[in-house]
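Hi again,

Forgot to attach this to my earlier email, sorry! This is the prediction with iron/sulfur cluster bound. I've pasted everything inline since the attachment limit keeps bouncing my files.
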Amino acid sequence: MNKEKSGIKRRTFIKMLGAAGVGSVASALNRPVVTDAAVMQVDTRSFGSTGVQVPILSLGTMFDTGANQLLLRQAVKWGVTYWDTAQYYNRWGSELGIGKYLAKFPEDRKKIFLVTKSSRRDPGGLTDELNDSLDNLKTDYVDLFFAHGVSNARNELTTEIKAWAEKMKSKGKIRLFGFSTHSNMERCLSHAATLGWIDGIMTTYNYKVMTTDKMKRAIDLCHKAGIGLTAMKTQASSSWGSTGTQTPEGMALTQRFIDKGLTKEQASLLAVWSDERIAAICSQMNTMTILKANTQAAVDQERLTASDQRYFEVEAQATAANYCAGCTATCQGALSEAVPVGRIMRCLMYSRSYSDHYRAQVEFRDIPGSVRDRLTAFDYSKAEYSCPQNMPIGRLMAEAVAELS
Ligand code: SF4
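Structure tokens for the complex follow:
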């Protein structure tokens, strides 16, 4: 394996930092509001070849939707009517809160493209979880049902699951079927494109992964196969927390977009929307402020220039060792024992980048104790050697034990 990593050229960076300007602090808030918030409406795109149009911004609901009914109401008003949930989001609270909303506003059900998920891979388990979700959501169908967190599509997307999806469609309980993936995404996408029965996929997709040849090819295969694509993890948050924005390259990137009247978060969304093959971005929007900022970015659709894109590329190169790219087959395959490295990296990301320590702890404690207890005893040298991002895996596993046990 080629261990040489492409790094930023110092001269190029200094030139860019100068262009960004350290003196100019024009606030993103001073940007002229192009669209009146009272009337703004999010655009739609075709969801693959399914014949369905979806809003380009999807409401990720991994929060207490029951206590945020006004946010749901506002999302509908702005056309953010693609809602993404799962049973375990907020420990059933997300689905139950959406159910509470739909019971109060049943006329909104047909406006909403509703997605839920199950981690089960057996038909009986999938049926049980789908029925539970329908009960929670106070609806008799979901628009799209995902097998959640697929990391090995070849093994997990079996003919049994295909038959189950067809049966549920014929019963009218689901309209479309697909999966979500944040591990080995490129392989999962490429395999799905060959199957002919996957309607939609939600995948990690952001400025740090979208420029690799493997990912470009995988997205292209799915697009050609007519699969509707939703991007998630579009902020490219790291397992280290906010260190990405503290590098000179991260600061230059942030300043670049502040000067244009955009936050870095909005610009990261625009970078993904610039790929027309992506139907929608799923973003966790648990406050009205985030919902409004993301909706404005979706409505304004400021075009990023080639120079803007270059800032993203430079930051991505400079912070590669901050970012776990989800290629778990690489590091986990290099270990002699089954260690869920990718899952633990995500726990650290939730705690450090999303400030959601509770969720990180819950997910970390879901890992069998027999594995957790031995995390600091494993030898990670082969995994670290194989990691294309040069992640210090052993150190991060030890930090996860210290912070999340
Ligand atoms: S730790 Fe490295 S090899 Fe493992 S999933 Fe993350 S980036 Fe890939």
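The first helix runs from residue 10 to 20. Residues 324-328, 330-331, 341-342, 345, 387, 389, 391, 393 surround iron/sulfur cluster (CB under 6 Å).

That should be everything now.

G.
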